[in-house]
Every structure is written in structure tokens, then in C-alpha cells.
# Entry
Amino acid sequence: MIIGITGNSGTGKTSICKALEKNKINGKTPFVIDADRVVKKMSAIGEEYYNQIISTFGKEVLQENQELNRAKLAGLVFVNEEKRELLNQITYKYVAEEIKKQAKESKCNFVIIDAPLLIESKLNKICDVVISVIADKETKLKRIIERDIITEKTALDRLNAQKEDEFYIKNSNLVIVNNEIDLEKQAKEIIELLNSNILYNKEIVIIQNGDLKILQFKKLIEYKNLVHAFTLKPFDFGSNITYKEKEQEVKDNYKEVCNLLNVDFENIVRPYQTHTKNVVALTGEHGIFSTELENVDGLITDKTNKSLSLVFADCTPIYLFDKNKNVIAAIHSGWEGTLKQIIKGAVNKMIKEFSCNPKDIICAIGPTIRKCHFEVDEDVKDRFCNMFKDICKEEQFVRKAENKQKYYIDTVYLNKQMLIDSGIPEQNIIDSNICTVCNNKILHSYRVEKENSGRSTAIISLK
Ligand SMILES: [Zn+2]
# Structure
């Protein structure tokens, strides 16, 4: 496996690489390749890469002693996008080959590439996982000035020429906010994430800031007026029952998520979920568990001062967003909600009450128990067979468990079918493909933890 680590200067990505190097991944020490060092090696006089650079950019990028003047080359491409692209292409061609060669020779199962321009040079294409490290501007500035002993102005110029956080979020599987973190702990958590299967879906990104980890859908990040998240362990948002005991902790957790998403904690709206098919379009003022929101499992709004929050431990979270009408919804579709077709009711309400066009609605399906683990008794299976015509003839939906009267059913598949039946184009449906039971070290799962299970929250909000 090849893991690429990248980020602006001053983010501390090399420190994270070093912390990772001290750990074993699947019993083996990872092998770290410093991409800058590879480029330096290939830039030596007479190397193929060296020759290619001169024939492309001319002798003006050479020093008097014929060595490559890297500062001059950097300056040249900095002001010219076309040349920058050309350099990235050449670098990719040679560096990728060399890295692949070194990775193979290392005979390590885990290879880490430390590369500041991993994404720009397209080296991310040879990585199974891309990890970006970001940090506040002040933190980066302080680190660069201390490390390179340069003036604040020089450091600022360098930082201003680098990519924004958004670029890294869009192009990574995992983004780590490294203002001040415990590197050893961080390394262990990265390994835990690598050992789960949540980093291998290109549609999603995990953002970690200290103990807080959230999952986001890249398709939804594209919309600047929309924010959303699905929280991972250890953050707990409490069930209807445990909320009271943990009220302060839950509120603090909300505040931390709101802080990361840059939304106001006061705007959180959360219903009292009871596996109904009731979906409410918000009109008045609501907070957490307001009385009008009892027995409600879906929320819709077109207002910017409402952050919809529902909680989950195995049930299916579905986010809906009409990109033209700017209407959002959050739906809690457990197996009972799926049976009651809550998702169909939600889309209908968006169409009837907000004049949404289903063709403009984007849906995102979060982590949930999936067919691999969703074992049910015959009576539950039969209720689905009775409700949805012919569904039990479909192998995709149901599989009999070996040696017992139990069945594995795919409620995500049913929800997708209902979304399509409601007129939502299949390509608008994004699935995280993550099973909460398979990844129960990272995600809350009621099946695994029973009454002790915490809750994740799915939050969606218009700006
Ligand atoms: Zn599973």
C-alpha cells in the first residue's frame, strides 16, 4: 500500500511521517520516501530527468557549474501556469517511476511518500490513500520562521503562493488539522483509520481535528452555501434516553463540530427520533428536542439559520440537497423507516412544499449497517417482501443465512430504489459504502454495543 502525505510548509507533515515511521502497520515498519530527496537525486548532472528539464526549459535554468538551479526553475514556473503544468508532468513521469522502484525494492507492505506537491505533480495517482495536513496560517507562519530562520515577509510570500485548505480537502482521503496535536496519538489513529475501510472511497473525505473526526461527501463540499458532516467516534451525541445524562458533554460536542463547520451552535435543530415516517418542514424556532419535533425522523428547510441534526448508530442517514432551490433535508431511515418509506415522503414534501425538482436533488447516504451484517429474522424479511413487490426475488436485496432461519437484507439498496422511483437521477445518489458494524472501532454501532452504544450525528446546514 502506498500512502501519500502532503500539505503546505509549516503544517508539520514531515513530523507526522516520522511519528508514523515509529509505528508498525500490520506488524511491519512503514518505509518513508522523501519525494524532495528523490527529485534532488534525479536532478544530478547527466540524469535523464536533468536532461529532460534542460531540453524543455533551456539552459537558463542552470547554474554556472552546470547544476540545476532549482530556485530559478521554481521562479520560472511560479509565474507561468503552462510551464508549471509542464514541469509537473515531467516530474511526475520520472519521480513516480523512481518512487515505484524504491517502494518495490523496500519490500515493505506500507510505503509512505512525503511530498509537498503530491497532488500538483499527480503523484497522488500512485497512492492508495492521500493524507493532507493543514494548519492555521499563524501556526504555519510561526513554524516556518522558526525552522528556516527567515523574515515574516518571506514566510508570508511563501504561504500565500501555496494552495488553500479546500484544495487539500477536495483531493484527499484524510485531512488532519495540525495546530497542536499529540503526534504519537495521531499516528496511532491514522493507522486505525488505515486498517478500517473508510479511507478507500474517493467520494468521501475524513477530516480530523484533535479528537473530532468527521466524514464529508466531496460532491456536497463543492457547494459553497452548504455545510455538512457525519461524526465518527469517540464523539457521542446521545440517544433520546442518554441525552439527559450526558447533556453537557453532548452540547460541548455539538459546539466543537459547529466550530469546525463554522456554523452557530444556537441554530442546531434536532428532533426526538422514534423510527416514524414523519418529516417536518421547519417553520418556527426549534432547538434540540423541542416539543413540536417529537416522533419526527426527517427535517427539511430552506432557511440559513437552521442546522439539521439527526443521530445514528447503524440506521441509515440520508442527506438531501436541491442545488437550485437551496433546500436541504436530513433523514433517519432505520429498517422501520425504510419499511415505512420515509425517504419517499421526504422527497415528495420537498417537491410539494418547496417546488423542488427531483432532477436537481443530490442525495448522500452515510455510514450504516449494510447487508454484510444486517441479519434479520424471517418475520422482518417477510414484512419487506409484503411491502415491496418482488423485492425478495432479488438476490441483491436478500440472502439467506447459512444453517439458520435468518436473512441478510440490504435496506440501503431499497432506499436507493425509492430515491430513483421518486425521480432522482441515479448519478445524483452518492453512497459512502461504509458499514458501521464492519468499522465499529471508528463508528457507533447499536448491533455491536447494544444499550452502551453512543450516537453519531449527521448535520446539514445552509449558509
Ligand atoms: Zn458490515
Notes: The chain has a mean pLDDT of 94. The CA atoms of residues 48 and 274 lie 66 Å apart.
